[in-house]
Structures are given as structure tokens and as C-alpha cells.
Amino acid sequence: MTRLLPYPLLTASLLAMWLLLNGLSLGHVLLGSAIAIAASNVTAALAPAKPRIKRWYLLPKLVAIVVADIWRSNIAVAWLIVRPSHSRRVSGFVVVPLELRHPTGLAILACIVTSTPGTAWVEYDSASNRLLLHVLDLVDEAHWIDLIKNRYERLLLEILA
Amino acid sequence: MTQAADLPVWAALLTSFLVLLGAGFTVVGAIGLLRLKTFYERMHAPTLGATWGTAGILLGSIVFFSVLQSRPVLHEVLIAVFVTVTTPVTLMLLARAALYRDRSEGSTEVPPPVGTDGAAKPGGQV
């Protein structure tokens, strides 16, 4: 089982992608499975870090939080752009000390931070495990550190464990 | 698009709303790219197009083709996934390049590398 499917999640995602592109039929399930299994075995040569997902049921919660935050910050940033420019706004850098060290977790966090308008992942140092963020509307540094750590990082730590 | 005439009114309204919403966010993002002052601020603006700009147009496409073909058309979801997964790569590449340039020029507007102890205190406002 593990020899045939070294990355079951990758294989499942590839099959899902194949079926979304080609439509659901028995032929495509068979062909898609064959391609997904072959492709994930080829990927095994690169030996990417394998995420151990412990708490599946928290994933929808994370997705819901992130979608809501992206929606809210889209509106916030759109307003920052279209409002008169003479109003005061400070942007700046924030250093966030992280606990999360798992490469997959960090990749997900990078996607979240980048996809949320108003925050940008600038630099990460794996030795000190510190993250440098750029925030467009920096009212309160502690607020942003709290947001990253308590809203996203804690959930990611629980999910990946 | 001649088939568009076959679309029920509710679907036509929903599709137009979603497409206009997406296009609206994208154009605001483009305006932001022009209006914001520093490189790091400008980096944030196109994210609007990459998130709800894309999402609005893709949702509109899903509604349009699902109603027209009377079956769920969902392959637009893949576009959303790939855009979300690839945007950080470009953005980090640009941000790191800018940071490297500013640091090697000795700019005081960017913080020192986060790995060094000198950056232990958060700060370094632009």
C-alpha cells in the first residue's frame, strides 16, 4: 500500500483534478488513477516533506476563517486605495516569532498571508524561526502578531500536530 | 456568446454581479498599484486581483456554465487553487529581491535580517 501510494493525498488530488478536467466516467476514473499513481511515484524521487494531518475536522474551520478574512481584507484594502490619499496611514514591517516549523505548515501559512490583501510575507529565517511581514495598514503591531499567531498558526499547529 | 440569451434572468443577474464584482476588485488593485507610494505598499494591491478579483470572475463562470449546461461545471475551482498556490512564489521572489537591494544599498527604511539578534525587537516602520 505505502509502496504503491507513497503520497496518498497527492494521488487523490491528482485524480480529482483529472476528473474535474475530463468529466466523471469509469474510463476517466481508471485512466486518472493510473496517471495519478504514476505521477505521485515519480514525485517520490524528490522526497518532499510528508504532512501528517492529525485533525481533519479542523480543516474546514481554517478554510472558512481564511475565506472570511480574505473577503474582509479585500474590502479594507480596496477602501484604503480608493479613499482620498491625504488621510494618514502607516505601513510597515512586523516581526512575528513562530512556533510552526513544519515545511507544509509554513507553506500553507505563506499562502494564507499572501492571499490576504494587506499582509505580505517578506522574509523567513528558519534558524530563529522568525517571520518578517509587511503590513499595509499598520495601526497596531501587536494586533497583527496576535492575528497570525492565534488565528492561523494555532490552528495549523493543531491540524498538523 | 449567443447561448447567453437562453439564460434565465436570475442566473444572468447573478453572473453579471459576480463578474462585475471580480472586475471591480481587479481594477481597484490596478489603481492601487499606481497610487501607492513605496514598492512594499504596491506589493499589496495586485493581491486584490489574485483573490476576490479571480474568485468573482470564476464564480460567475461556474454559475453561467452550470445553468447553461444543466450540470455542475466546477473545473474553475482548479484555476482558483493554482492561482492561490503560485501567487506566494512570485510575491516572495519580488519581496526578497527588493529587500536584498534595499539592504545592500544601506537603506534605513527596511529592517535588518530577522535571523540576527539585532532584529529581536519588532519594528522598523516605513
Mean pLDDT metric of chain B: 84
Top-tier CATH class of the largest domain in chain A: Alpha Beta
Main β-sheet description of chain A: 3 strands, antiparallel
Number of contiguous helices of chain A? 5
Structural class of chain A: mainly alpha
Low-confidence segments of chain A: none
CA gyration radius of chain B, whole angstroms: 21 Å
Q: What is the quaternary state of this protein?
A: heterodimer
> What order do the SSEs of chain A take from the amino end to the carboxyl end, as H and E?
HHHEHEEH
Q: What is the total domain count of chain B?
A: 1
Extended strand count of chain B: 0
Helix content bin of chain A: 55-70%
Major sheet characteristics of chain B: none
Query: How big a fraction of the residues of chain B is strand?
Result: under 5%
Stretches with pLDDT under 50, minimum 5 residues of chain B = 118-126
Helix content of chain B: 55-70%
Rounded to an integer in angstroms, the radius of gyration calculated over CA atoms of chain A is 20 Å
Instruction: Choose one word for the global shape of chain B.
Output: elongated
Number of domain modules of chain A? 2
